[in-house]
Amino acid sequence: MLNKQVLLASFMDSDKIEWFYGFLEGRVGLKRREVFLFKNLSEDDKFIMTYRHVINLDGKDNLVPNALQIHKKGNAIYTINGLNRLIEFENSDLLGNINHSTVSIDWTKYQNTIIMSDGGKLTINNLERVFS
After folding, report:
1. pLDDT digits 0-9 by tens, 105-118
2. What residues does each domain of the chain span?
3. What is the greatest pairwise CA distance in the chain?
4. Is the distance from CB of 3 to CB of 53 less than 8 angstroms?
């Protein structure tokens, strides 16, 4: 059995936060101190929880429903698809195929944001950490 620890994000309205803390503790065994809560400053009443979870690479383990695998650079959170759209956005002057592996990103411009792709379009939302 191959296991891998991944960073996940779940998105919710404010009225679901306490329920989701309980869900993560009961289903995944995560304590509140192991979960980070962020307010999405770009959308009213929207929050993001991030947490680490060990998944079974044999496909026999269910991820948390509706969770996205994410990655971090400093305080910038991103999905792989979001990173690809960001690279294309920042290098729009390049014609043809972009070799994504050779492009560098100035991550200081994206601190305290979440970078995703929504319907193939780049979305960047500002975040604020919530301490509860």
Report:
1. 999 999 999 999 99
2. 3-130
3. 50
4. no
